[in-house]
Every structure is written in structure tokens, then in C-alpha cells.
Amino acid sequence: MSVRILLLFTISILFITQPVNAEPTVEQKRHDLDHAIKKLDKINFLPNLLPIIIENRDFIGLTQEQVDELDQWRKTNRAPMLATMHTIADKRIEMKQAALSPTVSSSRLIQMQNEIFRLQREVIEHKLSCREKIIQTFNDENWISFFMVLADEDVGITVPLNYADAQRLQDDKDF
Question: Distance (Å, rounded) from C-alpha 153 to C-alpha 148?
Fold first, then answer.
């Protein structure tokens, strides 16, 4: 009898002390979404270079006019790009959940994936627009300093060979 009471008491304590599985808080959802976006950014095809450029603008040797041009691009495009990245993260979570449901068809999952691809293309278009703005804004000295920053930051990006070769050829010609 005492073993039953002890067992019942132990089980009761376990049930009482278990956390309640309530809906995640808004803060938890935001944290999960931010985490998903960071993961997405790691698999993006184009790096996020503008934050590195702005942070190192003095070392790169940007003029105030160059900073203003890049900052204007950022003010115009950052919010829409981040909103699209948040939507991608949400859609990926929705798709994972839908994939576990036996009532969701394969064709619906393909539609969901196609929507994610469309959104990823929007992000890439924003990043390409940023890339073009950087190309238009930088001069040769900015590029050299920027590649030094990238090497120091260890972001896994090396100097493009065609740029390095072109610089070396230009240096040889000037010599």
C-alpha cells in the first residue's frame, strides 16, 4: 500500500511540476523568427555587405557623399528586404508544419515552396540592387580597403581573381 501511495505521490509531483505547453509568447515568436532569418542569411547566395561597409567606412576611405548614397539605398531598401526575409522564415515554418499534415497535398506543398522561391528572388533582387549601388559608389582605393576588411573579418569571401589580376596588371603597367 505504501508503495502505491509513494508512486502516486511521485507521479502527482511530476505532473504538477511539468511546464504548461501554452502558446509561445510574442517575444518568443520574434526570437524564433530572428533566429530563422539568421539561418536563412547563412544560406543566402549573396552576402550582406552593406553593414560591413558602413561599419568600416573610415578604413575603406568613403567620402561623406559615398556614405550618403549608400545610406539612402539602405533607408529605401532595408525595411522591405527584412520584411521579405521575415515572410520567408514564416513561410518555411508553415511549410514544415504543413508537410506533417496528412491532409495537405503534395501539389499544395509545391505551391508553398514556389512562393518561398519567389520571395527568395525578391531578397536576391534587393541584394543585387545593393551590389550595383556599391559598384557605382566605390573607387579602386575603396575596393582595395574593402577587401582588406573582408579578409580581417574572416567572412569567407576572398578577393575575386579577376579583380586581383586586373589590379596587378594595372600596377605593372603603371610601373
Answer: 9
Q: The pTM is what?
A: 0.64
Q: Is residue 68 part of a domain?
A: yes
Q: Is residue 163 situated within a structural domain?
A: no
Number of domains in the chain: 1
Say how many CA atoms lie within 13 Å of 93 toward its Cβ: 14
Residue 40 placed within a domain: yes
Residue among 167, 162, 130 nearest 52 (CA): 130
Query: pLDDT digit string (tens) for 98-121?
Result: 999 999 999 999 999 999 999 999
Could you list the residue range(s) of the whole structural domain that residue 98 is in? 22-138
pLDDT in tens, 32-45: 656 655 555 554 55
Is residue 14 a part of any domain in this protein?
no
Non-local (6+) Cβ contacts of 59 within 8 A are 145, 148, 149
